[in-house]
Design a protein that fits this description.
The structure is a single chain. The chain contains seven helices and no strands. Helix 2 packs across helix 3 and helix 2 crosses helix 4. The termini are far apart.
Length: about 130
């Protein structure tokens, strides 16, 4: 009985692991093609090998968080946009300033009281420009 439970848990774990790997691989390929980048261009921008990018898109590599951050940065996106955490704000519009997107993401991660204080400070700075 215990063996079957462990086998089922392992099967669920592997399915979820493959799902996430598949999700990330598809997102990388989608955004790369949306940006009209070749795998070679993405590998150069990310500082990763062409073979690595190919393996990433074909789910043949164990991706590290560090490498994923490099890829997301090379795609000129924030992690929030890549994973579509907030679909109302996620966009691949190149007219948006990447620095503003990152600031927005960092502000959203602050506790509410600190976020409100930061927004008051920013508004004050902008009003006095």
């Amino acid at each position: 009985m215990c063996f079957f439970v462990m086998q089922n848990l392992y099967s669920i774990y592997m399915t979820n692991k493959i799902y996430l790997q598949n999700y990330i691989s598809q997102k990388v390929k989608y955004f790369r093609t949306q940006n009209k980048m070749s795998q070679e261009e993405l590998s150069e921008q990310a500082g990763l090998g062409l073979k690595y990018i190919n393996q990433l898109e074909n789910q043949n590599v164990n991706l590290t968080i560090h490498s994923l951050e490099k890829v997301i940065d090379a795609l000129e996106m924030t992690p929030e946009e890549f994973f579509n955490f907030d679909s109302l704000e996620s966009t691949s519009d190149k007219t948006d300033n990447l620095a503003l997107k990152r600031i927005n993401m960092k502000i959203k991660q602050l506790p509410i009281d600190k976020r409100e204080k930061m927004l008051v400070i920013f508004e004050s700075i902008l009003d006095n420009l």
